[in-house]
Amino acid sequence: MISAAVLKRLAKLKQKKYREVERLFLAEGQSFVEEAPASPVHLLTDPNAVRRLSTLSTPTGPVAVFPFLDVSTEELMLNRDRIVLLCGVQDAGNVGTVVRAAHAFGAGVALTKGTADLYNPKTVRATMGSIFHTPICRELDALQFLASSHAAGYETVAAVPQGGDAPGSLPAVKLAIVVGAEGSGLPEEVAAACSRQATIPALAASLNAAVAASILLYEAYMRMLL
Where are the alpha helices (DSSP H) in the chain? Predict the structure, then answer.
């Protein structure tokens, strides 16, 4: 039985500042416990404890507590030929969905400062467990990351709404795909720092970040399989 003091401390993990201090995050649902390659630090199944820690209107439980999983930029680039860099994407659901797509297509994920927190409960839920299988680095400066990518031999590709190359023309080399928020897109200096640009042909005026990133990751994945 977990003590009231420990439960109070764990409940604070719903806030980013406490997650950063403890370097722990919450994951809710049995599927996360089953997806995780290692046992959680805490596993709470008591209905009262689950309600205390849950961010859902209808808690599903159990709630597990895991240590942070993010990796360094160097480790990310050492282990992945495809990386998606999310630049200022503030929707937690979109960020989690991109992590899911990256897992599906064998890619890593990089998150800039100003992007939704990886360990926000909504982000975690949207990954559907892929957070445990996808190398992710976070709190990055976009221009510094692009410079490191070029030095490591990556071709960098900015996703832009018009004027870029077709996704099918992506080369079969190490790629860092850079995607911004749907509304604001990429900052000009970030797009200019990339070695090429890609535009997804679509009838809609724009695609959200998760859709755009997923399409480009799939295209990059297919180039490597050919």
Answer: 4-11, 16-22, 30-35, 47-53, 73-79, 92-104, 121-127, 142-151, 188-193, 209-225
Q: Is 185 helix (H, G, I), strand (E, B) or coil?
A: strand
> Which tens digits make up the pLDDT trace of 190-203?
999 999 999 999 88
Give me the sign of the Cα torsion angle 69, 70, 76, 82.
positive
Answer yes or no: pTM beyond 0.70: yes
Beta strands in 24-81 (DSSP E): 24-28, 42-44, 63-67
d(CA 141, CA 139): 7
Question: What domains lie within the chain, and their CATH numbers?
Answer: 4-67 (3.30.1330.30), 73-225 (3.40.1280.10)
Q: Which tokens hold the place of 161?
A: 């709404």
Q: Do 179 and 213 meet the contact criterion of CB atoms below 8 Å apart? A: yes
